[in-house]
Structure formats: structure tokens, C-alpha cells
């Protein structure tokens, strides 16, 4: 299939946005493995949910002794002390959940000498990913300075560790991140959870700035076969949206009677998923980055241009760029005018005379004169 036909296929996918029964990915909690090494009688393995801040030791592991910050010591203020285990090992500090941001607890733990922090859940519930605060006066002071790993552990596991410490036993843990980043084919496989809404405040601006800044690096890595990237779009269940409420996104203006609706976001999310899917099928998965950045610039909600028509204009623009780059022996179009016949490229000064039965065409270029006078006019009409 030619590039033009495949681009047409892409346009067809985008036009079929009513086919909304596409499986959207679920948000995945990234986990690390924690193994109790001591006491020997307690040896067993548990899961912990890796935080989306700090620096996890991906591909590696850490062995350390556990210290409990204490009941009621939530880590919302500086501890004013350095936590040290009985034996000379790195400190893995347990801090109870509650009262303040996860990230602030970890920051105060880091200042108190912890090599890693485990946040102990206070409810019996599934593990969640600990997020950093969106808006906080303290955030600018410490979020970028967090350099230790942290994770959330469930209530029963936390109680097991606390009971052992209460008995005066040394508790040694091995936190293992070796399976947190799978790479079975020697590529780095990574995902981005995002949304096409550009009116959700600072977090929307933050994610779009990331896409713009990382775009060049991501495309180089993908073209070189060093990485495998997959975008995901977060959806939710509601009553007013698509497919009886199965696929939905929050109303941008939080007003069902004004402006855009959540279904508009779902449709554009689907279009962007289609761009990535079709791009992947033609071994050009990196076009997703071009489409997303162009769409954000040209089809902003703020300018009331967030629409299917604007999205299609972006696709047409990218398709034209793809034609210019060309494939095979055609080469890259860098000189105007350029004539392409039977996928061969001719550049220079064209001279043509057309008649009823045919025409004469000569191209004076850098490699002499190309005589194309034997071509017939009906060649281009059939």
C-alpha cells in the first residue's frame, strides 16, 4: 500500500469516530516488590505502589533496615531528628498516611536521613499511585528536590512490620524495582496517560509542555528502534456522554449547557488513538507526536477551534508533509519547482507546450535537460 493510500486510511479511521466501542486502557498502578529478609521467620513477598515523584531505582534494588516514625508522626513537619536503624544499613522509614500530602511526608523523611520511605495506608483498600500536589505553596520548594524512592504499602503489611518492630526485632527489607520496567525486546517501553482537554488548568499546561519539549527526543528514540511508546487517554463513567455513559470525560467548562462537552473530548481522544494506531501499522508511530502538538496549537478550546474539522486539517497538513519527504527513490523535496512522474523526481526550470493530441515537456535542471515529450496527455487522465 502506498503512503498516500495509508494516509487515506488514517483519514478514514478519523472519520469513523462514531465507532466508539474501542477498548480504552485502564489506569495501571505501577508496583515494586518488597521482600522481608529478616526476621527469617517472616520471610515473604509483598507489593507496593510506586509513587510518581522521587527517583525509583528502576532495574535495581535496595536493602535496608526499617524504622517507624511513630504513631501520630505523620511527617507533615520536619521530624527534627535523624532516623538510624540499630545496624549500619540504609534507613527505610515507615510513615503513616494522612493529614498532608504524600510528597511532603517523603520530603521530611529524606531530610531525616531516610534512603526510602514507605507510606503505610490506614485503610484496608487496594493500592493506589501516590501523586504529587497540583497546587501548593510548599510544592515548588521540595518536589524537584526529592531524590529518594517511595511507595505505598497496604494496611496489613504495614501492621506486620510495625508489630515486628514493636517486639524489638530488626526488620530488613529488599525493595526490588527490577520488574517495574519491562523490556523483553531490548527496548524501553513507556506509556503516557494524558487527555486532549486544554482547559483544565495548570496540569493541562504541564502535560502539553512535556509533550512539546520531549517530542524531538521521543521521535529520535522511536525512529532508531530504541523505544516503544504507547499513549493512553483517561476516561470515566457518567450518565451524560458516549455509549450510555460508558466512555466519558469531565465537562471542560463544568457547564452542560455551555461550550464543549465531555463527549467532544472523548471523540478527540479517540482520534489521537487512531493516529497512533495507524501510524504504528505503517511503521511511523512517531507521527502521533506531530499530530498532538499541531492539534494543540491550531485547535485550541480557548480559541473555540477544538473540532473534527480542525483535526482533519491537521491530518491533511501532516499528510502533505509526508508526501514532501517522499519514499524510496523519490528523495526529499527541497527545491521548487519539483516535478514527480512515476515516483521519479525532476527538479529545475520546466518548459511545456500542450496541444489537443498531446504535449511536449522539457525540464532544464542541474543534470542537463530531461525530455519527456513522448508522454501523452491521456496518461494523466486515466
From TrEMBL:
SUPFAM superfamilies: PA domain. The keyword rRNA processing does not apply. InterPro entries: PA_dom_sf, PA_domain, VSR_TRX. Keywords: Calcium, EGF-like domain, Glycoprotein, Membrane, Repeat, Signal, Transmembrane, Transmembrane helix. This is PA domain-containing protein. It comes from Eruca vesicaria subsp. sativa (Garden rocket). The keyword Glycoprotein applies. Residues 64-161 form the PA domain. Pfam families: PA, VSR_TRX. Residues 188-318, 319-352 form the Vacuolar sorting receptor thioredoxin-like domain. It comes from the Eukaryota. GO terms for cellular component: endomembrane system.
Amino acid at each position: 500500500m502506498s503512503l498516500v493510500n495509508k494516509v487515506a486510511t488514517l483519514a478514514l479511521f478519523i472519520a469513523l469516530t462514531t465507532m466508539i466501542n474501542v477498548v480504552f486502557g485502564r489506569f495501571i498502578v505501577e508496583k515494586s516488590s518488597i521482600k522481608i529478609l529478616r526476621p527469617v521467620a517472616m520471610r515473604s513477598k509483598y507489593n507496593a505502589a510506586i509513587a510518581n515523584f522521587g527517583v525509583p531505582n528502576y532495574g535495581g534494588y535496595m536493602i535496608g533496615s526499617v524504622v517507624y516514625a511513630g504513631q501520630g508522626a505523620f511527617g507533615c513537619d520536619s521530624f527534627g531528628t535523624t532516623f538510624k536503624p540499630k545496624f549500619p544499613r540504609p534507613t527505610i522509614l515507615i510513615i503513616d498516611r494522612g493529614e498532608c500530602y504524600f510528597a511532603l511526608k517523603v520530603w521530611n523523611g529524606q531530610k531525616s536521613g531516610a534512603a526510602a520511605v514507605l507510606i503505610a495506608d490506614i485503610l484496608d483498600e487496594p493500592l493506589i499511585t501516590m501523586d504529587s500536589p497540583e497546587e501548593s505553596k510548599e510544592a515548588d520548594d521540595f518536589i524537584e528536590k526529592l531524590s529518594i524512592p517511595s511507595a505505598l504499602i497496604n494496611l496489613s503489611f504495614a501492621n506486620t512490620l510495625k508489630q515486628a518492630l514493636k517486639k524489638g526485632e530488626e526488620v530488613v527489607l529488599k525493595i526490588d524495582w527490577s520488574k517495574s520496567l519491562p523490556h523483553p525486546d531490548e527496548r524501553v517501553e513507556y506509556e503516557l496517560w494524558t487527555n486532549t482537554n486544554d482547559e483544565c488548568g495548570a496540569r493541562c499546561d504541564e502535560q502539553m509542555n512535556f509533550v512539546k519539549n520531549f517530542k524531538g527526543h521521543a521521535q529520535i528514540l522511536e525512529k532508531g528502534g530504541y523505544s516503544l511508546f504507547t499513549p493512553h487517554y483517561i476516561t470515566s463513567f457518567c450518565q451524560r456522554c458516549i455509549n450510555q455513559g460508558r466512555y466519558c470525560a469531565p465537562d471542560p467548562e463544568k457547564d452542560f449547557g455551555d461550550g464543549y462537552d465531555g463527549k467532544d473530548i472523548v471523540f478527540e481522544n479517540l482520534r489521537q488513538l487512531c493516529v497512533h494506531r495507524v501510524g504504528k501499522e505503517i511503521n511511523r508511530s512517531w507521527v502521533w507526536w506531530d499530530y498532538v502538538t499541531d492539534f494543540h496549537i491550531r485547535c485550541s478550546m480557548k480559541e473555540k477551534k477544538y473540532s473534527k474539522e480542525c483535526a482533519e486539517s491537521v491530518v491533511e497538513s501532516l499528510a502533505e508533509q509526508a508526501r514532501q519527504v517522499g519514499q524510496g527513490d523519490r528523495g526529499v523535496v527541497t527545491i521548487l519547482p519539483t516535478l514527480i512522474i512515476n515516483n521519479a523526481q525532476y527538479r529545475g526550470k520546466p518548459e511545456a507546450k500542450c496541444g489537443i493530441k498531446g504535449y511536449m515537456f522539457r525540464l532544464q535542471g542541474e543534470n542537463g535537460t530531461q525530455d519527456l515529450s513522448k508522454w501523452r496527455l491521456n496518461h494523466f487522465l486515466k
